[in-house]
Structure formats: structure tokens, C-alpha cells
Amino acid sequence: MKIPTWVPRPKGSKERREPDPAVAADGMSTPPKPRRRREPRVAFVLSGGGNLGSVQVGMLRAMAERSITPDLVLGCSVGALNGAAYAADPTLAGVRRMESQWLAVTGASLMPTSRMPGLVQLLRKGESVHSNEGLRNLVDTILGSHDSFESLKVRFECVATDLVAGVSRWFGSGELIEPILASAALPAVYPPVTLEGRRYVDGGVIDNVPISRAVELGAERVYVLHVGLHGRPEATIRRPVDGALLGYWIARNHRFMRDLSNIPNGTQVVILPTGSRPELRYDDFSRTNDLIEAGYARAAEFLDGDEFGSLPKPSSWLGRLGLGKAGVVVGPRLPTDALSPGVSDRGDDGDAEALSAAIELVEAASPHPGDS
């Protein structure tokens, strides 16, 4: 039963009117004080993962169908794009639109190749294999009229890496498009993005699955949509840039493992399963529909299962008293050896290793003798 917020007045009593806070003593109106931003309770964390980002769309559909919604969305790389799109329209209809937009993406549209001399010069400078114009067009198409963080319906932040300082920077206000492009500027694949005089690359270089940011902002339950590589992957290396990318994926996954080992009391982390995934080159978008459906099927099965259903609801006051219990619920298909204690003891070495791998990627983008 809903408890009324008003109290009946006795008969004959006069109603007492409180002074309007928006009107000063001199009768002049004053602007209302800004409301304090309350701490989020439920956060969605969307990782980087390149063309595997379509798996996140399937996961989001499964959660939307079950009315699981966040009050904070954090994104990195392709997760920044998906996170912003979801925050703009956090409904099942909005997710369905994301699906349609993902199905229209091709390698040629997102990563156009060219034989023009300008591209040769770009490669010789070691900047990137592709320009980011295709990515910019995709971001513009997906976000439509949403051109600022403030225009989104759910609080959203994305992370990028300062290429010179080697530190992560979070963006959560002001212009929206450029920070997303910076967050998704995968070294060697896309060029760095300059913001306020600083050069930024993919946020995943330092923080590919930003669980710690969600905890820092006060989230009590964190849903992790991690579609990058878990553990040590097996992949076919055909070109120098493929080998450099593989080393980069491995190195940046260490931060995720470390963060999982440091979950504080009162915080629940729910890692959604990804399902089986085909081996794809970074520019292959031919299996997008299969990836969406795989992400949906595995997430739906997990969310309807007993393990997830038995989770207690987040309790903010228990967490603040330190009486809550930290919990990591791992969906099926995440290898158990990916959570081995030995990996989580790397300290900051994983960050330095990932940054070093990113710099190697830029060098690998330069042409090599015999490359076609």
C-alpha cells in the first residue's frame, strides 16, 4: 500500500503556506539551487571489443525485455558508442534501432581502404591504417540529434587514454561526439583524437572494462557487458598489425582481472555471458546478426537462471556501513582460469604493459617490406 506523503488538516484550521524558495525577500525571483546528483545504484559497464560490440546489443535486448535498467552507463571504445546510443533511448525500441544500425555496418563503410597517395603518407607517419571518417559517420547516424552528454536520458561517461601522459581521462559533460571517437581510437586502426590540445586513443589501453569507475561513483550493482577477449586467445596472425593487436588485447585484459579482485563490500558485479564467438578479423562484420543473437540467447538464459534470480537487491545503507558482501556472479562461458589469483596480483604492471603494446601498435601500422 502506498503511504500518502500528506497529512490531513483538522477542520477549521488554516493552511500554512511555506515561502517559495524561488522568490527572494524583495519579491524578485531567484534561480533554483541545482539539485545534488544522487549516487547511482545500478550501473552498466560496456567494454571495448571492436566488431564484437554487436554482442552487447543482444545483451542489452535481453535486459530491456526483463526491465533491467541502469541509472549510470559507462563505456569504453565500442562500448562507448553502444553505451551512448543506449543512454539516448534506454528502451527495448531503442535497442531494436541499435540492432538495425549495427546490421547495416560493413567493414568497407566503417574502415574504408584506399590506394590514394594520402593513405600511403599516413601509413608512413605511423598514425593508423584507416581514417575515422567511417566511424564518425556511424556515430552521427546512431546518436542523431544527441550531440551532448546532457542530452542523454541516462547519465553516461566514456573513457579515453592520454597518449602522452599514459593516463585515462573520463568524459561526462559537454560535447559528445569527439570523446566517443577518442574512446574508440584503437591504436594503429584509427588515428588519435585531439581534445583540448591533448592526443587521445582508445580508452581500453588503460581501462577496457571500467568496473572501478562504477564503484568509485557509488554503484552497488554493476552489470558487466564484457565482449573483449577473456584469458589468452587463439587467433590467426596474417600481418604484423594482427600480431600487435593480439598482444594489445591480452595486455589490456589484466586491468579487468585486477579490478575484479578488489570489489568492495556492498557491491555486486554481474558479468553477463557472451556465448561462443567466431574467430573474426577486426574489420570483419559479416557475422553481426549471429553475434547479436548469441549475445541475446546467452544473456537471456543467464538472467532467467537460478543463480541470478537468487541475488539480493542492492542495499545502499548496508554497503555504506560495510556490512554488505561483495559478490561476483559470472555468467557461463567465461573460463575459470581467467579469474585465477595469479593474474590479479599484477598491480600497475598490466597498465604499463598495455600502454607499451599500444605504442607498438602505432609502429606496426607503418608499412613493412613485402606487405601488399
TrEMBL record:
The record ties this protein, via CDD domains, to:
Pat_hypo_Ecoli_Z1214_like
Keywords for the protein's UniProt record, in alphabetical order: Hydrolase, Lipid degradation, Lipid metabolism
**Is the Lipid metabolism keyword given for this protein?**
yes
Short sequence motif named GXGXXG, residue ranges: 48-53
Query: What is the name attached to this protein's record?
Result: PNPLA domain-containing protein
Q: According to the UniProt entry, where does the motif DGA/G sit in this chain?
A: 202-204
Q: Name one GO molecular function term.
A: hydrolase activity
Active site residues according to the UniProt entry: S77 (nucleophile), D202 (proton acceptor)
Domain PNPLA: start-end pairs: 44-215
Keyword Ligase found? no
Q: Which domain of life is it from?
A: Bacteria
Sequence segments annotated as region (Disordered)? 1-38
Q: Which Pfam families match?
A: Patatin
Question: Motif (GXSXG) spans which residues?
Answer: 75-79
Give the InterPro entries listed for this entry: Acyl_Trfase/lysoPLipase, NTE, PNPLA_dom
GO terms of biological process kind: lipid catabolic process
